[in-house]
Amino acid sequence: MLSSMVKEHQGRQQSRKEEQERRRKEAILASSNLTHALVDHLNVGVAQAYLNQKRLDSEASQLEQNATNFQRQTSQWLSLISSFTDSMKEVGHVQNWATTIESDMQTIATALEYAYKVEQQGSSGGGGGSAA
Question: Quick check: pTM over 0.85?
């Protein structure tokens, strides 16, 4: 009887050890699956963050390039405006010069008309004019 009790006890211990080993393997497998699921979930977030960062870097580079182009265009526009302003000043100077020349020419024309009239009056009224 004692030996059968010992055998029965050993059998139950063996069953419990096997059951415990099976549960230990299940727990290891479950924790491994949980770990993989968590890592996969985190990797999705990390991958999304990486893609967002990559897109932001690309857009920042594009923005910097656009800003450089805009700065270059602005410098060209400022140069053109400065040139236009200088040209307008020159036109103002030319207009002033032309007005002065026109005034001088009117003075000369008036003086010539006056001299011509005086000469005409002198030749028709005095009788002794020069015959041209």
Answer: no
